Amino acid sequence: MQAIKGTRDLLPPETALWNRVEQTAQEVFTSYGFGEIRLPIFEATDLFARSIGLETDVVSKEMYTFVDRDETSVSLRPEATASVCRAYIEDGMQQLPQPVKLYTIGPMFRRERPQKGRYRQFYQIDAEVLGGSDAPGIDGELIEMVMTFFERLGLQGVQLEINSIGDKECRPKYVELLRAELRKVKDKLGPDSQRRMETNPLRVLDSKLENEQKLIEGMPHIADHLCEGCAENYLGVKRELELRGVKYGENWRLVRGLDYYSRTTFEITAKGLGSQNAVCGGGRYDGLMELLGGPPTQATGFAIGEDRLILSLQEIGKTPAPPRRDVYIAWMGTRVYATAIRAAKSLRAAGFSVELPPIEQKFGKALGQADKLGARYALILGDNEVSSGEWTVKTLADGTQQKLTEPQLLDFLRKL
Ligand code: HAM
């Protein structure tokens, strides 16, 4: 049997790095006042269709959707923002002091073509700020938080790009203008762009096709077509980033692949990832809550691709040590086994990592095993040791041995 294409097992010691990344996220996010939300892995298909958009690749091509036994259509979540908004409405979070700041970590599912940094089951570290206002300080602090997190992890080559895609006032007018301009060069565009030009012209700006680049560069920029409110908001966000010492670049083509955004959008890339180099994407989505039947609620957030974050950390040599084993207990004799079990328990309770072989082995073989596992000490327990209460402790790095009572052994290990 094999794992399903695009899914993979995460094994030790790599999982230690995953744990460190998640723990650091929790520490940093907590320091910014975020609390954790845990969400269902599957939801009504309609939730994603309505929020992410029917025409997006994510919804139209990549969702794992099935009909449940009661005939309802359900989907594995391709992202977390829609569920966070559903929960905000369903759990009455508008009654809480605003804004509500939430983060969540877990697997997402998209049926994409697997390659380095792109999987069908992947993991996101997601953060959302819901309610409050559209003050640029909220976006500024959110972006500062993710940059601080990356800095804490020692991620390298981190680059932030920002844009504003306007709101429901000014975007439709820009989209019409863009469509009209694209139609003029229709024959020179590929089939994907020709289709998107009609369904969602903004997505044409995302094209990576070499022969379309020059044409796209000549298209009108949204920054020149923002309404007063959006232009001011965008200026405010840039000022906030400057105040916080966050370096950014502007990319007028950063439109993102999900339909719910308004105003600020941003993406962050990092070193060593090849073509799938976005480690984080996000932005403001002031209209989404209403679209899902909730009260008007301004909101903004981001999701980090944890698989890519880990890949980038590994590329720069941040690989974790194999699981630590402080003590290997080499024991012989049925009478001795009970003492070995008790010793393992008390050493573990004191915080040490202990390996206790489940079957009796000759001391030579047991010491070989201890070496292979990279244990630091071997505790040799035979009849003599149990009768005298003096245990033999061998330091595996240099082969030296000493006799210690149980309290002396604990003292000795604690001093290291
Ligand atoms: P997204 O850009 O679709 O945004 O995904 C965010 C990040 O998830 C990407 O930058 C990438 O690192 C990672 N990612 C996406 N697809 C894959 C994949 N197939 N394999 C590995 N990593 C992947 C969202 O999901 C929005 N919900 C972000 C957001 C939150 N916006 C506002 N709040």
Automatic annotation (TrEMBL):
GO terms for cellular component: cytoplasm. Its EC number is 6.1.1.21. GO terms for biological process: histidyl-tRNA aminoacylation. It is found in: Cytoplasm. It catalyses: tRNA(His) + L-histidine + ATP = L-histidyl-tRNA(His) + AMP + diphosphate + H(+). Keywords: Aminoacyl-tRNA synthetase, ATP-binding, Cytoplasm, Ligase, Nucleotide-binding, Protein biosynthesis. Residues 1-322 form the Aminoacyl-transfer RNA synthetases class-II family profile domain. The keyword Membrane does not apply. L-histidine binds at E79, A80, T81, R110, Q124, E128, R256, Y260, Y261. GO terms for molecular function: ATP binding; histidine-tRNA ligase activity. Pfam families: HGTP_anticodon (PF03129), tRNA-synt_His (PF13393). The keyword Signal does not apply. It comes from the Bacteria. Belongs to the class-II aminoacyl-tRNA synthetase family. Homodimer. PANTHER family: HISTIDINE--TRNA LIGASE, MITOCHONDRIAL-RELATED, HISTIDYL-TRNA SYNTHETASE. This is Histidine--tRNA ligase. It comes from Candidatus Acidiferrum panamense. The gene is hisS.
